[in-house]
Write a structure and sequence with these properties.
Structural class: alpha/beta
Distance between the termini: 122 Å
Number of helices: 17
Keywords: ATP-binding, Hydrolase, Membrane, Mitochondrion, Nucleotide-binding, Transmembrane, Transmembrane helix
Low-confidence stretches: 121-129
Strand order of the largest sheet: 1-6-5-4
Helix content: 40-55%
Strand content: 15-25%
Number of domains: 3
Oligomer: single chain
Radius of gyration: 36 Å
Subcellular location: Mitochondrion membrane
Catalytic activity: ATP + H2O = ADP + phosphate + H(+)
Order of helices and strands: HHHEHHEHHHEEEEHEEHHEHEHEEHHHH
GO molecular function: ATP binding; ATP hydrolysis activity
Number of strands: 12
Family: Belongs to the AAA ATPase family.
Shape: elongated
Length: 455
Amino acid sequence: MATLFPPANSSLPTQVSPLSILEAFIPSYLSPLISYFGLNNAVPHILTFLVISTAAATGWTYWYDQFACLFRRFFMSTAQIRSRDELYEHMMAWVAEQEFSARTRYFVATMAFGSLFAESAGESEEEESQEPDAPYWERNRRAPLQFTPAPGLHFFKYKGKIVMLERIVDNSDKAWFPQEILEFSIMGREPQLLKEILKEAREKYLMKDKSKTVVHRPKGPTEVGSPPTWVRCLARPSRPLSTVVLEQKQKEMFVDDIKDYLEPDTQKWYSDRGIPYRRGYLLHGPPGTGKSSLSFAAAGLLGLKIYDTSTEVDTRVSLSGLLNVIDGVASPEGRVLILTTNHPEKLDAALIRPGRVDMKIEFKLAGEEAIAGLFMRIQRRRKEAKRVAEERAVKEKRLLELVAKFAQIMPQEVFSPAEIQGYLLQHKNQPERAVECAEKWVCDRMEARKAGKID
């Protein structure tokens, strides 16, 4: 009998144990348990079940997403609001005030100082009940807690219809900071209800800002390649134009010129003559004379927003870049540009040439009229209804006498309105005391100037 052996260098297929396949997917220390319970024969079935389950789960996820996308596209109406848009904060504040936000068990809690949301959110009942006897400065120091639904799906009713709100966090690689998308969706192909929600939220804040002046400041780009944006930083009560220390004729000339520029027919007038629809002003004078105050008061009077920036802070701004922003080919039209400076002689002539600056207003140090106006504005008390007319007339006469004395003590065009106002605030509601200490304050201030301690 002959016995055949395979050549030494030949290779035959070896049988692979199912258990060895399973070991690739499970920890090795579980292999003895499989052998102990006699599950070796069940390994192929287990592997088949795992493969089929994984494929089914992957397929279900894919097709569910596809179906949901198609269903939304053809059977629902959706509105998107991105967090880089100002409307985002309007909507978030509106959502926080809705009843469903108070009931949700999955929410985001924040303390946002200075944002539009913080301006609109009041203290909750729980916060109001805590430490009611705390000093007012302690209560003012604490920002109210703000609650909004967390990222994900939420449902609520609006005018009897179900609305789906989805908060989506965008963590794309291009974004330097996570952005967010709000999606409001309703059944049906008519988006009118969504537009009503957006309009209601926007109008609500337009009403809240009706007696306020909103200030925006620049913010760096949020992602690679995107331009810088403006963000709302605060909203302050509008300042009456009468509180600005400046000759009445100059104030009226400044405001009337802006009003004429903002007239609806003015833009067409500029366009018909090929003139860029822009208007520029230069307010110059010593520090503390009211340049920024006039800008703020005019914006409040005319319902304009302020977009504030400073070239002194950001030294990266070049003159050519600034000129390009002011009246370059791509610069926006329909805006009012106000330049303020303490040293107009240091400005480049190209920056303030006609066409870029259309009107210049000089602010001077406080004269007799300004000094008297400041004293009257700060020291005059509100009228009390219960006070007898004769008594009120006597106090008014006494106040006028103090105004005249104060104006005689204060030197003319030596101090800025801000300096005099600072002194008067030290003696608020004490007109007699303010007059008594005025002479000493003037002497001390003049000596400090001579010693170089103040400008």
